[in-house]
Each structure stands twice: as structure tokens, then as C-alpha cells.
Specification:
single chain, 106 residues, alpha+beta, Alpha-Beta Plaits, 3 helices, globular
Length: 106
């Protein structure tokens, strides 16, 4: 499994805008190899909130297929030249290969 994690820092009171964007239905939901996405919010600290979005793919190849897809590229072209929302302070993106899962033993 391949995981993309986005850490998005926003000004206090704006986390819900990011949560809505990443939890609303979209074209990524229909992509081959897309497993799911999860959105986490860290409580406000020093006037900022942190939103973590974890998007899971069956494989890195599936993620690459999405990145190169016409739908994904068109979405980026539509936003080219537009300023990022003023409430976004910082965005970090990391790519990870899932190596282990541990479940509760019952």
C-alpha cells in the first residue's frame, strides 16, 4: 500500500474549510487503486490549526496513474495562477510505503 500524507497548517478557525475540501466527493474517489482518505485535525495552538490528510492507494503505481491522469492535470490547470487561500499558512506533502499494520488482539 502507498500513502500520501499532507500536513496543512491554517489560521485558527479555518480547519473546517480544508476538511470539507478533502472529505467531499470527488473524481479521485473513482480512480483505480484509490483505497480511502482520512482527515485529522489538531486543536488550535498559537493561532493555528493543523489538518492532516492521509490518502491511501493500493500501490505507488496507482498513485502515479492518478497524478498523470487527464482529470488530475485538468484540476491543476484550472487553478494555475490563482493565489492559495489566505488562511493556508503552510503545506507539507510526504509519500510513504506501508510496511506494517498492527491490529488489536481480541
Amino acid at each position: 500500500m502507498f500513502v500520501q500524507i499532507r500536513r496543512i497548517t491554517v489560521t485558527e478557525g479555518n480547519a473546517d474549510k480544508v476538511v470539507e475540501r478533502f472529505s467531499s466527493p470527488g473524481i479521485v474517489d473513482e480512480q483505480e487503486g484509490f483505497v480511502d482518505s482520512q482527515v485529522f485535525v489538531k486543536k488550535a495552538s498559537r493561532g493555528e490549526e493543523e489538518v492532516v490528510v492521509m490518502i491511501r492507494w493500493e500501490s505507488e503505481d496507482h498513485w502515479k496513474q492518478w497524478e498523470k491522469s487527464d482529470a488530475h492535470i485538468a484540476g491543476h490547470k484550472a487553478n494555475r495562477g490563482k493565489p492559495k487561500p489566505d488562511y493556508i499558512v503552510n503545506t507539507e506533502v510526504g509519500m510513504y510505503e506501508l510496511k506494517a499494520v498492527k491490529s488489536a488482539s481480541k
